[in-house]
Amino acid sequence: MNIPEHDHDAIVRRAIELLGGKQEFFAEADRELADFNGRWKQNVEVIGRIL
């Protein structure tokens, strides 16, 4: 499927289609957000010492 870069609605529709529907699309978005938030809440002082 060839989608022009500026057609954001078509990109979102294709992503939903590839993930198996809206429910799975939003479930994946929730998983990614939870993963991001988990990384964000880490102890940055300890990470800074390691780096």
What does this structure look like?
The N and C termini lie far apart (43 Å). The protein has three helices and no strands. Helix 1 packs across helix 2 (22-40). The chain has helices at residues 8-19, 22-40, 44-50. The protein has one domain (8-50). It is mostly helical and 51 residues long.
Distance between the termini: 43 Å
How many individual helices? Answer: 3
Q: Largest beta sheet, briefly?
A: none
Say what oligomer this is. Answer: single chain
* Total strands: 0
Bin the helical content. Answer: over 70%
Low-confidence sequence ranges: none
Topology as a string of helices (H) and strands (E)? HHH
Count of the domains: 1
Helix/strand class: mainly alpha
Rounded radius of gyration (Å): 17 Å
Strand content: under 5%
Shape: elongated
Average pLDDT over all residues: 87
Characterize this entry briefly.
By secondary structure, this protein is mainly α.
Question: Helix and strand layout, with pairings?
Answer:
Layout (H helix, E strand, L loop, with lengths): L7 H12 L2 H19 L3 H7 L1
Helix pairs in contact: 1-2
Structural descriptors:
single chain, 51 residues, 75% helix, mainly alpha
